[in-house]
Amino acid sequence: MEAFRHDSPATEPAADEAEATAPAACREPADFYTPAGRDGVGRFCRRFLDENALTATELLHHPRHQTALSNTATFVAILTQVERAMDRKGGITPLVNEIARLTRERLKESPPPDFLPDAYPGAAAELLSVGGFLGRFLLDAAVTQHIAAGRSFAEKAEALLALAGTTEHPDALAPVERLLGEILLSDAGTASCARDAPFATLIDLIVTLIAADRPMPDDAPPVFRRLDVLMRRVPMTGLRDALAAAFRREMAKPACFTIASAGDMYGIEAVQREILALSDLSARLRDREGAYVGGARTEAALQRRTALLVNEDTVPEITRGRNFVQKLRILFVLQKMPLSPTAAKAVTDYLKSFFDSRDFAGRLLDCWKDRNEKLKGLAEVQRMVLSSAFDDEERESLGGQLDDIQNAFLRTQRVLAPLIQAKDDPPADSVLDIVRLAGEGAFCTGKSRLAVARVLYRHCHRPRFVRHVLLNAPGPKERAARTSWLRQSLGMVGVPFIDLAAQRVLVVDDESGPRALVVSILQELGIGHVDTAADGQEALERFQADGAAYDLIVCDWMMPRLSGLDLLKQVRTARGDLPFLMVTALATLEAVKKALAHQVSGYIAKPFTPDQLEEKIFLVLAQKGA
Fold it and tell me: Rounded CA gap, 42 and 48, in Å?
């Protein structure tokens, strides 16, 4: 049985009424109580229902409301309209009379109980225990009687929400959800619940309930605040669908999100703000797969409204008065909106013309004065390109174009040159400046980001930089915060950062003096946990007890019982990825070849300075991080 259209009041047809299918052919009284039947009652009796702050469910479950409707001057006209719509001349009046008779009989035999909200779960369970259609009818009747004292849609919604707050049982919530949905499907019902909020505010309230993507405003009407709590607590698909229909109804109205200011002679700024508002709504109403809540009808409602603003002739005018990058932003926003095919082509072609212009790079860079702002601006435009509606090949081409512009800018402005050409360690603050830009997403994907990554990978793991940024932190909490910031910022350009405080190192040497020296250097470097072993055999036993206990082994070569080379062989059979730094006084070519044959991570010759050992530590740890 096909459903009635329920999102367009009979007194004020909605813009998408053309999509309405023929109403359900109700042939039995029970047909009027189906979702499609109730929608039909709401559609054809809309004026009477709104004038009396009633819903279709209340009308179908209360003899007094049925009598009141039959006594109106328009009752005969309503019946005639229904018969014509269903192509059932003379067949509806007997059904309506039978519904009135059955309603009186059922309620006389089983009068609905009075209950307070806290008693609702028990009352609902008792009524539903009757079973079948009659049980559901009696529960609907009890709920409609409970809200009958409400003099407005808002008061009835408050009473329903009080019931919903006492239960999470789907069967007990079903009549509450249905009645709330019928209230919101009514233009008058929505206005009452929203306290006649202005158009833009009302749309935001409805979309916030649908999308649940942001907190409900503190100054929102009480009904909307309580609806928000309910819908976040319990999934309510029917209520969400009703809200989507209410959204489409409101969007069909001629109201605007913004008004032109006194200085906006041609209304261009108002149109731009209207487009941005529609873009925000479009994004909020789409799920992760890009489908709209409410399906094609919601998309069509947005598309109809956008069509009034965007077409082949208006696209250039929409961006008038904006600078180059502002025009690009507006056009990328337009490109993602639900547009007609001709409007979409007009936007895409106009946008492409900017990129094809010979002075594109110069005009774009001129939008910002500061060097860093130019870098961030180029990266922003590339992100817009890579998330745009262009096809994959076009996105890759235009994204590469922006990367080329930024890469050339990095070279000509010598942004990275002080770090690349530094003979000694550059000042830590110079490195931090580039790290900050990386964390702010200032570098384009491609050659630019790769160049930055190479520089930061090299300098952010140098001991002096680590000492300056981390070891000089005033306390553990600040050090942890700096480490987290470094990791996140470097991660933006694909550079791993090693948290030395989390590293566990095993130092192996048969001589106590050299062993203690290595331990002290590691501790001063900030290594969190250091164990020692007096020879290779002791180290092997520690390793075999827990092969995952260490992140690095620093091992002497020449030792009794088990040499460093033999320990390396044993370690590699179990963990090929464990960094292993060999310390040796025999840094001969033959010795190096033997160590490399067994995948040593690095080696350092005795004697060494603390700086030399620190460099090697970072080198082997960074190899694993990469």
Answer: 9
Q: Are strands 529-533 and 552-556 parallel, antiparallel or unpaired?
A: unpaired
Place of tokens 């009835």: 156
Q: Does the bond joining 607 to the residue before it have cis omega, within 30 degrees of 0? A: yes
479-534 residue pLDDT tens: 888 888 998 999 999 888 777 778 899 999 999 999 999 999 888 877 889 999 99
CA distances in angstroms from 573 to 32, 553, 599, listed in the order given = 76, 15, 11
DSSP string, 475-524: SHHHHHHHHHHHHHHHHTTT-----GGG-EEEEE-SSHHHHHHHHHHHHH
CB 205 within 8 A of CB 199: no
The rounded radius of gyration (Å) of the Cα atoms in the chain is: 36
Beta pairing partners, 532: 507
The gap from C-alpha 124 to its chain's centroid, in whole angstroms, comes to 38
What is the residue type of 511? E
Q: Where are the beta strands (DSSP E) in 360-421?
A: none
330, 309 in Cβ contact below 8 A? no
CA torsion through residues 66, 70, 73, 78, sign: positive
Task: Give the helix/strand (H/E) hosting 529.
Answer: strand 529-533
Distance (Å, whole) CA 122 – CA 231: 22
- pLDDT one-digit tens code per residue, 108-123: 999 999 999 999 999 9
172 contacts: CB under 8 Å, gap ≥ 6? 120, 121, 124, 125, 128, 139
Q: What is the 3-state secondary structure (H, E, C) of 551-619?
A: CEEEEECCCCCCCHHHHHHHHHHHCCCCCEEEEECCCCHHHHHHHHHCCCCEEEECCCCHHHHHHHHHH
Residues in CB range of 8: below 8 A, 6 or more apart = 14, 16, 17, 20, 43, 249
Question: Which has the closest alpha carbon to 5: 281, 313, 245, 353?
Answer: 245
